[in-house]
């Protein structure tokens, strides 16, 4: 890596324009995003720097998302980890091939004082364990919370949940794209990656209120504590372990 600090900070206070990915180079001039620029935005290689680790160390909750080469743990490596706090400080950590640890990220992910908020935590928790030996806790899953709270809807994808609860339209076009050329991600990919974490904390708070109102808050908490177990079962290829019939020798 030519730039171990790997830090590019842009954002509203940095005075960059509406295309908040534009000052990174070399990059195709792809249209970025319909979303407003974050308060701060940084891209790191390998791990957070000290400043951002300290910035996040004091928060009550962190939104977390990851992008990988695919959905198979052990086969498809983790490429990107995105974080956002409740002041809209967003960063993306680009992981290199074969990278096995990220100590500052790990410190945050394992801190008992910081709730880590994911949409479908089961995947990200397994990916962080598999790739970076991180044991995430405590955590909140907005997909599980949505299923427990929004029983009037069959739609619990991030796009639908953010749209309904926060009124923001996420662009998911970059969802299935090549995250492996991590040093050369397009503006559109970075904007997409950032968008996936920027509205998670407001969604989380809406869902908490709904769960409390429907008296499912305690059940939700207990579901969240099961997520690391399910993630470990996924990594070991145990499917349908709790089903009466597994439909075959699995
Ligand atoms: Mn994502």
Low-confidence stretches: 1-6, 9-31
| Percentage of residues in helical conformation | 25-40%
CATH topology: Nucleotidyltransferase, domain 5
| Strand order, sheet with most strands | 1-2-5-4-3-6-7
Number of domains: 1
The first-level CATH class is given as Alpha Beta
> Which CATH architecture is right?
2-Layer Sandwich
DSSP summary, beta strand count: 7
Helix-and-strand structural type:
alpha/beta
Estimated radius of gyration: 18 Å
Looking at CATH, the homologous superfamily is Ribonuclease H-like superfamily/Ribonuclease H
Calculate the mean pLDDT score and round it: 88
Main sheet summary: 7 strands, mixed
Question: Element order, helices and strands?
Answer: EEHEEEHEHEHHHHH
Describe, in plain words, how this protein is organized in 3D.
It is a single chain. This protein is α/β, with parallel strands linked by helices. It has one domain (about 10-235): Nucleotidyltransferase, domain 5, CATH 3.30.420.10. Helices cover about 35% and strands about 15% of the residues. The chain is built from eight helices and seven strands. It has helices at about 50-55, 105-110, 120-130, 140-150, 160-165, 185-200, 200-215, 215-235; strands at about 10, 40-45, 60-70, 80-85, 90-95, 115-120, 140. Strands 1-2-5-4-3-6-7 form a seven-stranded mixed beta sheet, with helices on both faces. Helix 3 crosses helix 8 (about 215-235). The longest helix has 19 residues, at about 215-235. It is globular. The termini are far apart. The relative contact order is 0.16. Bound molecules: manganese (II) ion. Manganese (II) ion binds near residues 65, 67 and 196.
């Amino acid at each position: 890596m030519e730039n171990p600090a790997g830090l590019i900070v842009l954002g509203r206070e940095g005075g960059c324009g509406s295309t908040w990915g534009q000052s990174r180079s070399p990059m195709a001039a792809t249209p970025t995003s319909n979303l407003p620029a974050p308060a701060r935005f940084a891209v790191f290689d390998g791990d957070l720097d000290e400043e951002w680790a300290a910035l996040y160390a004091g928060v009550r909750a962190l939104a977390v998302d990851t992008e990988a080469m695919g959905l198979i743990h052990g086969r498809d490596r983790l490429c990107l980890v995105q974080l956002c706090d409740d002041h809209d400080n967003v960063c993306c950590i680009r992981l290199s091939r074969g990278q096995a640890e990220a100590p500052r990220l790990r410190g945050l992910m394992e801190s008992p004082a910081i709730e880590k908020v994911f949409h479908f935590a089961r995947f990200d928790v397994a990916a962080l364990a598999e790739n970076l030996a991180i044991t995430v806790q405590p955590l909140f899953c907005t997909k599980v919370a949505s299923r427990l709270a929004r029983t009037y809807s069959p739609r619990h994808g991030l796009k639908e949940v953010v749209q309904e609860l926060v009124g923001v339209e996420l662009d998911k076009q970059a969802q299935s794209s090549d995250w492996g050329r991590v040093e050369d991600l397009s503006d559109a990919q970075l904007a997409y990656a950032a968008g996936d974490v920027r509205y998670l904390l407001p969604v989380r708070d809406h869902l908490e209120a709904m769960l409390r109102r429907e008296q499912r808050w305690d059940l939700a908490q207990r579901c969240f504590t099961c997520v690391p177990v399910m993630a470990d079962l996924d990594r070991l290829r145990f499917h349908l372990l709790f089903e009466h019939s597994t439909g075959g020798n699995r």
